[in-house]
Structure formats: structure tokens, C-alpha cells
Amino acid sequence: MPLTLALLEREGGGLELEKLLARLDATRERSPWLLCAACEQRITDNAARIPIHDQHEHTVSNPHGFVFRIGCFDSAPGVVEDGEPSTYWSWFPGYRWQIVVCQQCRWHLGWRFDNDGDTFFGLVLDRLRLERGF
């Protein structure tokens, strides 16, 4: 017997069905999480994507020649800062950068950029993956 019919046939089942359908709708309405590709920790909500200098994605390189494809996000609750902020070799003039790592496994996921309170995160896109089911 399908779940919906089984719920309806039980006493109070209509209310249970309504709650289940409301949870499904809420899941459909929210944006998927981007997860750490190493440990699946939730890093940021896909809805946190923002443009910086008119684009979300940037290809950047550090002084050692390592190239990164980063996406810009206004929040990243799944990361923690590591080290001191610096202005050296900033890809975004006027911004200080600070390394950010996954709060669970400590894998380097990108940088936090700050310009006197104007803050965003540049996250390495190939170190993130989309939450399953989206």
C-alpha cells in the first residue's frame, strides 16, 4: 500500500500526511548545500553565491604558480579561519585575505576576504560538491 494511503487510513493520519508534505515542500524550496568534497561537511548554501567584480567565478593564481578556480559566497558557516589576515598578493584590491579550512576535516577550501567589514568567501570550487538529491 502506498505511504500516502497508509497514512490517511490511520487515525490522525491526515495530519501526519500534511506534516510530511510540508517537509517535502520545504526541502524543495531551500537551496542545496555545497559540501566539503573530502568529508561531506556542509560548507555553504548554494544561494549564498554572489558576484564580485561582476562575476561569481574567478580563476586566480598564487605567487607559487598554483591556479585555483574559486566561487564567491557571502557566507560559509562550515569553514574556520586559519592564520593571520594579509594583503600580500590579494586577488581583490583593497581586501585582506585569510585562509579558510573545513571546520570538520581541516582541508584548505579557500579564503575569507575582508575590506573593513565588507566580507566574502572565495572557495575553491573543485573542493566542494553539491549535496545529494539536488
Your description of this structure?
- The protein is of the alpha+beta class and 134 residues long.
- It has two domains: 1-30, no CATH class; 33-130, Beta Complex (Metal Binding Protein, Guanine Nucleotide Exchange Factor, Chain A), CATH 2.170.150.20.
- 18% of the residues lie in helices and 40% in strands.
- The protein has two helices and nine strands.
- The protein has helices spanning 3-9, 13-29; strands at residues 33-36, 42-45, 57-61, 67-73, 79-86, 96-102, 108-115, 118-124, 128-130.
- It has a six-stranded antiparallel beta sheet with strand order 3-4-8-7-6-5, with no helix packed on it. Strands 2-1-9 form a three-stranded antiparallel beta sheet, with no helix packed on it.
- Helix 1 (3-9) packs antiparallel against helix 2.
- The two termini are 27 Å apart.
Which features does this protein show?
alpha+beta, 9 strands, 134 residues, 18% helix, three-stranded antiparallel β-sheet, six-stranded antiparallel β-sheet, Metal Binding Protein, Guanine Nucleotide Exchange Factor, Chain A, single chain
